[in-house]
Design a protein that fits this description.
The protein is mostly helical. It has ten helices and six strands.
Length: 287
């Protein structure tokens, strides 16, 4: 009986780890479908929306969706941990620690993730939306996913402007305010149709998602330019900063100026995630 409970709990835990990925996938597909509907079904009433113009809109959507999906897949398939990485030898020095959970010495900027159950090279944080750590090998795909999510949500917010204007056409009343802020309440109470609820809910999701993704994107872009990780951001010291250009190469690879356009563009990372060039003091006293 106990073994059955352990197996059931293990399966439930593994399923919950992937639940955020499933939810995010459904939200991305729902937003894409709603924006495509606005372009194809609602656009004919707008002046200037010719067939080539609508095709350009659909092509831009496909480009952003393809980059989001492919970067996300590569992020999940790229293991940033120390598994299969030789960490011994004579290279151990200042900043190395011993991890009792993994039973191995770990290099600087490497830390153990209790959610993943393993040490991660150049660990930035554990992303709850993907259910995996952001580290040395997959940081490029994480940033690229954020970039195209931000661009896609900005595009969706602009196209959903007419939805907000339609809701507010009667003025800022209690009905319009609840439809914008709490569409579920309006649906359950029977105040709006399912179609109106779907448009209002997706429009709200676009705005909230855009603000959330923008905050993450600009925060990590600033960290990348400073040569820091999220864990190192709490300190004012930047001992690993090599200048903005080299910092970009450390995260995005040697072709950093093209790597963000498409995940299929080869851009090898200049380092190994173990040894780092130190350009400043590692300790607070500066010794």
């Amino acid at each position: 009986m106990r073994s059955f409970c352990y197996r059931t709990w293990g399966r439930l835990e593994r399923a919950c780890r992937r639940l955020p990925v499933v939810v995010n996938t459904l939200l991305v597909l729902s937003i894409t479908a709603e924006v495509s509907y606005l372009v194809l079904a609602e656009a004919p009433g707008r002046a200037g929306w010719t067939a080539p113009w609508k095709a350009a809109h659909l092509g831009a959507q496909a480009f952003m969706l393809g980059n989001i999906a492919w970067n996300s897949v590569l992020f999940l398939r790229t293991d940033p941990s120390v598994r299969g990485v030789f960490l011994g030898g004579e290279g151990m020095g200042q900043g190395w620690r011993y991890c009792y959970s993994c039973e191995t010495h770990t290099p600087p900027r490497c830390s153990h993730c209790h959610d993943c159950g393993v040490c991660v090279l150049l660990r930035d944080h554990h992303c709850v939306f993907f259910g995996q750590c952001v580290g040395f090998r997959n940081y490029r795909y994480f940033l690229s996913s954020l970039l195209f999510m931000w661009a896609g949500l900005l595009y969706a917010v602009v196209l959903n402007t007419e939805v907000f204007l339609l809701v507010l056409s009667e003025g800022l009343t209690l009905h319009s305010a609840l439809l914008l802020l709490a569409p579920w309440v309006m649906l359950v109470s029977g105040q709006v149709t399912a179609r109106a609820f779907a448009f209002a809910f997706i429009a709200d999701t676009c705005v909230v998602g855009f603000l959330l993704v923008a905050a993450f994107l600009f925060f990590h872009a600033a960290l990348m330019l400073r040569g820091q990780t999220t864990r190192e951001w709490y300190s004012s010291r930047r001992p690993y900063s090599l200048g903005w250009r080299r910092n970009l190469q450390e995260c995005l690879g040697r072709r950093w100026y093209l790597a963000w356009l498409c995940p299929l563009i080869p851009s090898p990372l200049p380092g190994d995630g173990i040894h780092f060039r130190v350009t400043g003091p590692l300790d607070p006293a500066g010794n």
